[in-house]
Amino acid sequence: MAYPYRHESETRILSRGFGDPAARTVAGWKAMGGYEGIARALEIGREATIEEVKASGLRGRGGAGFPTGLKWSFMPKDARRPHYLLCNADESEPGTFKDREIIRWTPHQLIEGCLVGSYAIGAAHCYVYLRGEFFESTRVLARALEEAYEEGLVGTDVMGSGVDIDITLHVGAGAYICGEETGLMSSLEGRRGEPRVKPPFPAAVGAFGMPSTINNVETLAATPHILRHGGEWYRQWGTEKSPGTKLFCVSGHVRKPGNYEFPLGFPMMELIEDVCGGIPNGRALKAVIPGGSSVPIMSAEDCRECSLCYEGVEAAGSMLGCASVIVMDETTDIVKQVRRMAHFYAHESCGQCTPCREGTAWATRILRRIENGRGTEDDLDTLVEISEQMTGTTICVLSDSLAMPIVSSIEKFRDDYLALIRRGERVGAA
Amino acid sequence: MSDARFRNPGWAGNTGEFDLTEADVRGSEFVGEQPLDGGHPSVAPSLPYMLVKKDPEAPLFEGPYLERFEKIRSRYPMARAALIPALNLAQELRGHVSPETMDEVAALLGLSDAFVRGVATFYTMYNKRPVGRFLIQVCTNISCNIRGADEVLAAFLEHTGTELGETSSDGDFTIAEAECLAGCGFPTCVQINSRYFEDVSAKDVPAVLERLKREVNDGF
């Protein structure tokens, strides 16, 4: 079997080249229909390219799910000032490992997506902001980009069209917050990766003060396919509100973790039990985090009828986010894991906003106290209260991202917290 | 289906049920040698900056590194945007970014010392002090954690005889905890300098360390 795991029921659009080293070259990518999407875009023109992506209903794959075509249409139509496309390849949401897979197996898929996006918004320069830790995948992308320049696919006069599009790989230095779109812009400009207040939105004042659009790797990678086959073709998969296919990153307690591509709306339990081979050692499912660590935790009961699309996961009380399904079996210590998440957010808080800087640190200390058997029931109320104050009160949503797992875990796994608290009380009494 | 542990070829070439080689997975043959001058300007800001070889006294910047620095500067509409790539390049050469290095970079880009220090200290990948030949960063975030990352971290500390964040007495290893490395599919994910080692369990740790020592002896 080629690495990584595959399943015969997958719908492989984005992941077709995963595990195939030949797909890394221009020739290999072209043999799979590569660079036909950008060719069609250049033929039909900017407006029609945006319309095609709008027709596909593609929604941003970075977590927010904003319609991509609509986002592109916000860019000013005049070309008096330079426009920039920023590709967010700062993948660092805990549980998410899809963008790295696209970059290291199918670098030209991303390069072609950057060309389509740049062309659509009238950008002559695209910056790919790569996570610093991705040294190896970045080198694969870099070699592929050099090859694309050599072949006249990128740079001056792209494919003989008279359009100039440069792409630059920019490597970060380790900060989760640079995955937030305005934090990413700050970092690209050589500053601390501190998010900015919106408005102004990036389409008006973005990178280097110029109109900019930021798209996730997976979003951009989907656009060449949409251009090549048409927006309607893309809608054959998924639901009305969540069209197309999506990479589901499954990690945790399953036999075959990995990236699996399915139409949106795929049943969660089928993904866990059939595709990923179920939970090992005959254990029962305890909880799932469906969209990366920044979304509410789901109990096993919540998962039963859940379908993996934006509206389906929302109906089950959580969010699809970037579809990073973290599976936890009955042996999982929920309090410890929530504390670990809190530690992460406290570490990654940029420190600009008080509710986040203080709230994430307080929450971490309280959770650690409970974990160590020194908590009280009042601590749970305090955690909920702090979480409320961390929601909707800051520039970006980093503190909201911690509030959600804390509140949902207390709601759904209160007994786990109480067991630790009561054990502590007994220890204290003795 | 058996519960036997699978192996992916991400680290030791043990392909188990998968039939790709480690080089296939890493793309190392496709990538080839990395040019010191950075290659095409579009990719000049993207070279790895955590290497075995480091020279804390290396000049900023000379020869092919100066060429690379100029290529980097040509890719941004404002001078300040070259700061992070320049700090990366400084760490690639020197192995860490000291306050003096920060000041030198500030002078090169015409920025104030205070501004550059503020930026450099914001980012976790800049080593503020010297580290060992290999900086071993073990992910202990949620997906790896529920699959035993704490034990893997403990095993690295035990087998190198060092404390978290400290460097072993032979100067080979510095062990640190890392946040999610986006390698959640094959836990535990460990970043060692510029490479990922995936699917590492506590019992694999001695073999990983032996391999690294062998690479140093082979002049890697």
Keywords:
heterodimer; A: 430 residues; alpha/beta; Rossmann fold; Ubiquitin-like (UB roll); de novo design (two linked rop proteins); four-stranded parallel β-sheet; 18 helices; 11 strands; globular; B: 220 residues; alpha+beta; Arc Repressor Mutant, subunit A; Glutaredoxin; 2 domains; four-stranded mixed β-sheet; 9 helices; 4 strands; 36% helix
Helix content of chain B: 25-40%
Q: Compute the CA-based radius of gyration of chain B.
A: 19 Å
How many discrete domains of chain A? 3
**Total DSSP helices of chain A:** 18
Q: Determine the structural class of chain B based on helices, strands and strand pairing.
A: alpha+beta
CATH homologous superfamily (4th level) name of the largest domain in chain B: Glutaredoxin
Helix/strand order of chain B: HHHHHHEHHEEEH
Specify which chain pair forms the largest interface: A-B, 84 and 70 residues
SSE series of chain A: HHHHEHHEHEHEHHEEEHEEHEHEHHHHH
Going by helix content, strand content and strand pairing, the class of chain A is alpha/beta
Full CATH superfamily name of the largest domain in chain A: NADH-ubiquinone oxidoreductase 51kDa subunit
Largest sheet composition of chain B: 4 strands, mixed
The largest sheet of chain A has its strands arranged as 6-5-11-8-9
Query: What percentage of amino acids of chain A are in beta strands?
Result: 5-15%
What is the CATH architecture annotation of the largest domain in chain B?
Answer: 3-Layer(aba) Sandwich
- Subunit arrangement of the protein: heterodimer
Assign the CATH architecture of the largest domain in chain A. Answer: 3-Layer(aba) Sandwich
